């Protein structure tokens, strides 16, 4: 089964930033600084540092295909680097808003 490309994962993040697809932050936190999100069946592990999204560590789509940072960087990019400045800010905002809601 082929792995997910950075562009496929970027498209999910972009759609979430545009609020075309629903991004839900999950309670699971695999490691400090990592945030698990679900975008309509796509499970992503995002790497944050001081509330700034740095990388997408891993993604699994509904059909079971997986993509990981190591394979994307081999081709010189990862999904987060494809986001515009505005899209990146939207994803960071969506994740931080859900953190606040979950804490209340």
From TrEMBL:
InterPro entries: DUF7693 (IPR056110). Pfam families: DUF7693. This is DUF7693 domain-containing protein. Residues 4-95 form the DUF7693 domain. It comes from the Bacteria.
């Amino acid at each position: 089964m082929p792995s997910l490309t950075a562009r496929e994962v970027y498209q999910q993040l972009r759609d979430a930033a545009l609020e075309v697809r629903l991004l839900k932050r999950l309670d699971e936190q695999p490691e400090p600084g990592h945030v698990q999100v679900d975008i309509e069946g796509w499970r992503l592990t995002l790497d944050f540092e001081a509330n700034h999204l740095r990388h997408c560590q891993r993604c699994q789509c509904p059909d079971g295909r997986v993509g990981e940072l190591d394979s994307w960087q081999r081709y010189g990019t990862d999904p987060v680097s494809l986001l515009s400045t505005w899209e990146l800010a939207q994803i960071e905002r969506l994740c931080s808003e859900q953190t606040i809601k979950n804490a209340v």
